[in-house]
Specification:
Number of strands: 5
Strand order of the largest sheet: 2-1-3-4-5
Helix content: 40-55%
Distance between the termini: 33 Å
Oligomer: single chain
Order of helices and strands: HHEHEHEHHHEE
Mean pLDDT: 93
Shape: globular
Radius of gyration: 16 Å
Number of helices: 7
Largest sheet: 5 strands, mixed
Strand content: 15-25%
Length: 186
């Protein structure tokens, strides 16, 4: 297995290049071969990025970033809501696996955001939607609400990491489901 001592700058560059490759691909470009699976199993995971994304089946971080098995530490939740369980998983990746970058990835056409905007969440999902509602307030534009939600997740991650891992960088990003493009937020 290759050396995985990535700087956050190298990790961000690799994510962007992976998304560019994805935009022109008909199939996933990540290595999911038997040899790769065995290598990661025997040598352990050495991800270069944490991606906190929505659990929506159309949002597949490993494919979106053309990643190999073991490259990304992916945490998926309804509406990419960052709560204590997500923070605990992310903290493990950053502190124990030395991951240099965390991406909070929202997306267009998010059902959770739509439910928050329209106030129509029922069942167990309502707790997550309530968290989104508290963050987006009265915002009714789908894209802007998703972006606000991502920025809130970024802030939560930054607050946790500011003392523990001040060198780990945190970025928000939006995935456009119709084109496949990822836009990193400034």
């Amino acid at each position: 297995m290759q050396n995985r001592c990535f700087s956050w700058e190298d990790a961000l560059k690799r994510l962007k290049e992976g998304n560019d490759l994805y935009l022109t691909s008909a199939i996933s470009k990540g290595d999911i071969s038997l040899d790769r699976r065995i290598s990661v199993f025997e040598n352990g995971q050495k991800p270069y990025a944490v991606v906190i994304s929505c659990s929506d089946s159309r949002v597949i971080p490993e494919s979106i970033f053309s990643a190999n098995i073991g490259d990304l530490f992916v945490i998926r939740t309804v509406g990419n809501v960052v709560d204590s369980t997500v923070l605990a998983s992310m903290e493990y990746a950053v502190t124990h696996l030395n991951v240099p970058i965390v991406i909070v990835l929202g997306h267009t056409g998010c059902g959770a955001i739509n439910a928050a905007i329209n106030g129509n969440a029922k069942g167990l999902i309502a707790k997550s939607i309530d968290k989104i509602c508290a963050v987006i307030g009265d915002e009714k534009d789908d894209y802007m609400a998703s972006r606000i939600n991502v920025c809130a997740g970024v802030k939560s991650v930054q607050e946790l990491l500011s003392n523990e891992c001040p060198n780990c960088k945190v970025f928000g990003a939006m995935y456009f489901g119709d084109s496949g493009k990822v836009k990193f937020l400034e």
